[in-house]
Specification:
The chain has two helices and 13 strands. The chain is mostly beta strands. Strands 2-1-6-7 form a four-stranded antiparallel beta sheet. It has a three-stranded antiparallel beta sheet with strand order 5-9-8. The longest helix has 15 residues, at 28-42. The chain is globular, with a radius of gyration of 16 Å. The termini are far apart.
Length: 146
């Protein structure tokens, strides 16, 4: 299940956690529901017309912003992952785009939680117990970092 504001989107699929994929991919039906929820309840401005899509479905002017919701919550079987704006929007200069896109129909609607969604989380894979945990953190380079 995915939550945006008060709307819950039912998703009955497994999701792959992949640090090698930049974007988050959702089953096309789940993506359509997510996009509708964002447009109807969370994002207060219309998407930018004529924005270079580059594979993105929803883009907004950087100057005017998108007035988006503070978070999107992925409710997984063992816990919730709260994605803030930096985890679901990508800044591309003059516009910002939703970093969640639909997977290809011919891929049977696979779902992937990409690395943008994993920013500022410590992700632990416990292979013995087949568990993944997400711990919010602040990942910032200090002045002394290379």
């Amino acid at each position: 299940t995915i939550s945006i504001v008060e709307r819950r989107i039912q998703v009955e699929r497994d999701i792959i956690i992949d640090s090698g994929s930049t974007l988050t991919y959702l089953d096309p039906r789940a993506y359509t529901s997510l996009e509708e929820a964002l447009k109807e309840e969370a994002i207060l401005v219309k998407p930018r017309v004529g924005a270079p899509k580059l594979g993105f479905e929803l883009c907004y002017d950087e100057e005017t912003g998108f007035g988006g919701v503070d978070s999107i919550v992925f409710h997984l079987s063992e816990g919730d992952i709260m994605l803030n704006v930096t985890n679901y929007m990508i800044d591309l200069g003059e516009f910002v785009c939703l970093g969640i896109v639909p997977s290809m129909e011919d891929d049977e609607g696979f779902m992937v939680l990409g690395n943008v969604a994993q920013v500022n989380f410590e992700v632990e894979f416990n292979l013995d117990s087949k568990m993944v945990s997400f711990t919010p953190t602040i990942c910032a380079l200090g002045e002394d970092s290379p």
